[in-house]
């Protein structure tokens, strides 16, 4: 591929060193986000999606640690940088929408001022007046009704859904090169969700923004992503263009995820349909981590970890059986 990658993650290992032992939350992840593309990252709860994102942002907290691997932003290595240097490198270029919006807003500042601040800090506007106008415009874009009044509200005066939209506005207003969005629309109703996803797509197409979109919702993936990474127990098990993933699903785990979408646009409840539970990351099985739940698992699968191998054009899969078929 001759695409330029804004973000390149190589063999990333992020673990938690707990009293009970080492929790391998991210266990050798490779992932690229090409310029102007929306890349989906999907997988069941606890498989390491947020920790992958937090590793990029330098936000893994004790007892967690990025142990090894490489994270490059526009070719610049981020691992090993001190917080201050990381902020300088990422600064304007990377924004993140967090999964828990309540903890990310300052309770004693009016929401409009918080969003405005990021514009002023990054010198995107010349005056407070101009900044206020831009904030209100962005509030309208992300579906905040009565934007002008809401501008002066404190976080506790807004509903959860509105706070989420304020977070989204804050992340997008500086037009970052890379947006990492962790379940950004999960708490929102479908019309607002559609509006926000459209806005994201627009920013990609018009300003070349790139997005790493973490979601449970495969309907959302089908609608706006260019490529998808499927994660299971800390590892990428399948990676493909969206078209190829839905058309030539290879990994038994991905097949399970897809077969359990009740309806496009609604949250799938795949925990009920793939038998068994996600392995404990403290005690990973030997071999393929999915082997304990997989119908196709053979003796070899329980002993040896398959590599992520090409099974088609722009399509990789970590499964001995899929490689045979592909
Ligand atoms: N402070 C911690 N101590 C020990 N283990 C942790 C800690 N925080 C996270 N983990 C482990 O890291 C793993 C990955 O967590 P992560 O938050 O990345 O999951 P996720 O894929 O984002 O899940 P969800 O879809 O529920 O948001 C989890 O299985 C969890 O057990
Ligand atoms: Mg998460």
Summarize the structure.
The protein has 326 residues and is α/β, with parallel strands linked by helices.
Give the arrangement of secondary structure elements:
Elements: E1 5-18, E2 21-34, E3 38-42, H1 49-56, E4 64-73, E5 76-77, H2 83-90, E6 94-97, H3 111-121, H4 128-141, H5 147-151, H6 160-172, E7 178-182, H7 190-207, E8 210-214, H8 218-224, E9 227-232, E10 235-241, H9 242-247, H10 252-259, H11 299-303, E11 309-312, E12 315-317, H12 320-325
Parallel strand pairs: 3-8, 3-9, 6-7, 7-8
Antiparallel strand pairs: 1-2, 1-4, 4-5, 9-10, 10-12, 11-12
Helix pairs in contact: 3-4, 3-6, 4-6
The structure holds adenosine-5'-triphosphate and magnesium ion.
Magnesium ion binds next to helix 1.
Give a structural overview.
With 326 residues, this protein is an alpha/beta fold. Helices cover 33% and strands 24% of the residues. It is built from twelve helices and twelve strands. Strands 6-7-8-3-9-10-12-11 form an eight-stranded mixed sheet, sandwiched between helices. The relative contact order is 0.14. The mean pLDDT is 89. Residues 49-50, 99, 182 line the site of magnesium ion.
What features would you highlight for this structure?
326 residues; 12 strands; binds adenosine-5'-triphosphate; four-stranded antiparallel sheet; alpha/beta; 33% helix; Rossmann fold; binds magnesium ion
